[in-house]
Amino acid sequence: MINWKKDSTILDIGCADGSMTSKLFKELIPNCKTMTGCDINEDMIRFANEHYASERVNFTTLNIEGEMPVQLREHFHHATSFYALNWCRRQETTFQNIYDIIKDQGSCFAIVVEKFSLFDAYRNLAKTEKWKQWVIDVERYTSPYHDSHDSLKEMQQLLDKIGFAIKKLEHKVIVHDYEKQENIKGGIMAVVPFKIPDELYDDFFMDLSQEMQMFDTKKYNFKKSTNDYFLNVQLLVLYAEKK
Ligand SMILES: C[S@@+](CC[C@H](N)C(=O)[O-])C[C@H]1O[C@@H](n2cnc3c(N)ncnc32)[C@H](O)[C@@H]1O
């Protein structure tokens, strides 16, 4: 489906530690010329440069919802982004920036988190006496589509408005089986953005996972959740070309 141009330049947005970007470059897009991973977090970019940079793979700090440097205008053939664009509150600015930095006939492939019981759990814990001191700024970490009644339509209207030609736009659920508590704890706590004191870490995980279990089964009707070491994440998958 994706028309990766030979010798193309690709930007991976929200690359974090760079491991996924490097894997993508090696396994999925072997004939691209260069792959650039970008992230708003400077520490991540430092780590990525130390561990995954090579002659054709590089990493740079960039806020995709900020002002784009002029030299990036129409610079890349393709943009990819995995589980990162849902962090951006200003979706129109974000997708307009992506449109501006890709060349004509270039494309964007993105996986955006739509709904996730983790966000519901954050909201509930933020209201409790026990956790409200640490669980702060919850909306900043919640997907802009989490409360949406028709996120596909919202995304379609946004991409249309900017001028993208939508080639694929669909809703997907991924169910991840972590098999044991230790694994799911590591998986969830790695993405929790709050500074929970070490001595409260286990207690926090227990309360968070209980809330997630409740929302997964009662609000979203998933059969299994954190009690069975399952994570259910609802996603928007999109592939759009610059006309
Ligand atoms: C869950 S991680 C995804 C990591 C990687 N794409 C993967 O799939 O393994 C999301 C990343 O998006 C980054 N991010 C959040 N807002 C951003 C922004 N405005 N511009 C660039 N990166 C951003 C975060 O710093 C974080 O590293």
From TrEMBL:
<dbReference type="InterPro" id="IPR029063">
    <property type="entry name" value="SAM-dependent_MTases_sf"/>
</dbReference>
<dbReference type="Pfam" id="PF13847">
    <property type="entry name" value="Methyltransf_31"/>
</dbReference>
<dbReference type="InterPro" id="IPR025714">
    <property type="entry name" value="Methyltranfer_dom"/>
</dbReference>
<feature type="domain" description="Methyltransferase">
    <location>
        <begin position="5"/>
        <end position="114"/>
    </location>
</feature>
<protein>
    <recommendedName>
        <fullName>Methyltransferase domain-containing protein</fullName>
    </recommendedName>
</protein>
